[in-house]
Protein: Alkylated DNA repair protein (DNA oxidative demethylase)
Organism: Rhodanobacter soli
Amino acid sequence: MITADLFAAALAPVRQDESLCEGAMVLRGFALASEAALLQALDVIVAQAPFRHLVTPGGFRMSVAMTNAGPLGWVSDRRGYRYDPIDPDSGKPWPSMPAAFLRLAAEAAAYAGFAGFVPDACLINRYEAGTRLSLHQDRDEHDLGQPIVSVSLGIPAVFLFGGLQRSDRAQRVPLAHGDVVVWGGPARLRYHGVLPLKPNHHDVLGDCRINLTFRRAS
Ligand code: MD3
Ligand code: FE
């Protein structure tokens, strides 16, 4: 039935894996199969290390709220940016990296061509309507040959993917609940950010977006 197939093809959501550039791959919906395990693990982390707004070295309060899981956590304060094994708010180690987090990050990295990825840090960002993340590079990690895996949950966002120079023109990439992106190789040091979120609602996460970024920091 040619016509039925044509209708099916026209109506099906055309959301396939896409390569943004060499080293950057969007895996649409890759996290959906582990959604329940991820959200359960997230609740455990947030109970031990609540979201908080960090201050940049320049003294500005970040609009993104953050927490971490794993042996190392990313922190910012008046002294600078760094990875630290201790949560400065609790004085205790960050919550441990959930097995479901490790598995998803390793599977996504392997799928994108980075076999053997074992993250030691998961930075967790929470966005609400109006929250943005200005263009930056992630260069506080020791081995820039290791990729970063990001997982988007909750309300959608528009991700900005720039070049190696802050002034390079940025592409806009919509990211939805369950999308996973793997950034490595020549994409690893590209400038990136998130446009201010539009007010929205997600049935499971409510009025926010949560982004997990898995890193090999040490
Ligand atoms: C491209 N987070 O935490 S994830 C960050 O949606 C961060 O919360 C954003 O940028 C967020 O540092 C974007 C996507 C991402 C993460 C790291 C990258 C893209 C990247 C590193 C290099 C190039
Ligand atoms: Fe980043």
